[in-house]
Write a sequence for this structure.
């Protein structure tokens, strides 16, 4: 069964360092999402791509976060510099992008700890 | 911001009992979905109910939707220890760009 791949699974970094997360969606899925999930809460959307284009990055803290999906397939989310408050689970999801009834498929996530 | 509020925040039951979780939301929706998340893992889609549907079943899952009250419930019958997880409702909001807005989740613990 096809899965969304994410790496690394865990990342520990010191504040002010740069970190990067990678996501490979299910083949053929045009829409890719990055979420941040704080412990005990639901996922919150950071950025949404349709193919290689950003559809929505209104909740992305652009002073320190960046995301790209250059060839419309895999994607990278970067934080520079990391802050203590960035400690969270970062989830990637993909969907076919069909209107009206889209289901999202999630990767296992990257757990980030900023010390 | 999170559109859905789930109730209860945490639920602990014995194996074999039924578990009911509720979700309330604020705006008009195309559909409402329920996802499950095991500890430290990603979310897994469970079931989708369209705005013109009132009830849907899938195996041991039963979902209801009341659009007049902007609420939904998820019933898990004959629960098992393996059902222990967090459960999230997610709304596909009318007019949104194929986005889901997730609730805060219910942590279900099924005791053997």
């Amino acid at each position: 069964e096809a899965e969304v791949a994410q790496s690394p699974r865990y990342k520990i970094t010191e504040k002010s360092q740069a970190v990067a997360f990678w996501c490979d969606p299910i083949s053929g899925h045009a829409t890719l999402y990055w979420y941040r999930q704080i412990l005990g809460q639901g996922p919150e959307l950071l950025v949404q791509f349709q193919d290689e284009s950003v559809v929505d990055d209104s909740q992305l803290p652009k002073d320190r976060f960046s995301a790209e999906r250059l060839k419309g397939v895999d994607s990278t989310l970067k934080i520079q510099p990391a802050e203590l408050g960035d400690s969270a689970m970062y989830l990637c999801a993909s969907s076919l992008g069909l209107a009206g009834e889209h289901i999202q498929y999630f990767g296992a996530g990257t757990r980030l700890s900023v010390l | 911001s999170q559109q859905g509020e789930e109730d209860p925040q945490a639920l602990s039951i014995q194996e074999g009992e039924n578990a009911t979780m509720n979700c309330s939301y604020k705006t008009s929706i195309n559909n409402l979905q329920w996802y499950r998340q095991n500890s430290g893992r990603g979310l897994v889609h469970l079931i989708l109910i369209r705005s013109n549907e009132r009830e849907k079943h899938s195996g041991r899952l039963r979902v209801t939707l009341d659009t007049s009250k902007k609420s939904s419930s998820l019933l898990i019958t004959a629960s098992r220890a393996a059902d222990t997880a967090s459960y999230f409702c997610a709304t596909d909001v009318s007019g949104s760009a194929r986005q889901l807005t997730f609730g805060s989740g219910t942590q279900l613990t099924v005791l053997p």
Observations:
- The interface with chain B takes residues 4, 6, 31, 33, 40-45, 48, 55-56, 89, 91, 93, 95, 97-109, 111 of chain A (CB under 8 Å).
- Residues 91 and 109 of chain A are 4 Å apart (CA to CA).
- The two ends of chain A are 36 Å apart (CA to CA).
